[in-house]
């Protein structure tokens, strides 16, 4: 009986030599030095562009945030001034030393304005008191507001103090009903007030307030 060999044997005639493309592909196992340098150069340029954009955003934010805070302070100051001055009443008070103070005055020392105001019935800011004593003063380049919930006070009476606005200068003039002109503020209460604030970066900001008579 004949033994038949069924094993597969490669036929030399059917084996093809590797193509030129396959030979080149097998030789290129990584990037060349020139390709790496080009990639690094592109990455460096893109990094510089990204850093320049980020720096511009940070610079814009650094200049915008302080200005926004300044405008917010100014808006709050004007709002509270309008609320206070629109509620002025002719009510003298007794200070902590027992002396009588006028209902409206230009204050003492750094104080710009001192006056008595009423509290609307719907407001609960003053608790059970219907009157407030309010003082605005300029101290070390800032405008401060002080409020006494007990107008007739003693030496133990406390007050609330709040920094309102950073300002270089505050100028207040009063409208004289007799001369119909704006004049330097005197002890008597004028018909209206013109208050101006000198602010860094914004210049001088004016606001007029009509006082109740």
Jot down its keywords.
single chain; 213 residues; alpha+beta; Pili subunits; 5-stranded antiparallel β-sheet; 4-stranded antiparallel β-sheet; 2 helices; elongated
Task: Describe the overall structure.
This protein is α+β, with helices and mostly antiparallel strands and 213 residues long. The chain is built from two helices and eleven strands; from the N terminus they run ααβββββββββββ. It has a domain at 78-165: Pili subunits. It has helices at 20-27, 33-85, and strands spanning 93-94, 100-101, 104-105, 111-118, 131-139, 142-148, 160-166, 169-176, 181-184, 192-199, 203-210. The longest helix has 53 residues, at 33-85. The mean pLDDT is 81.
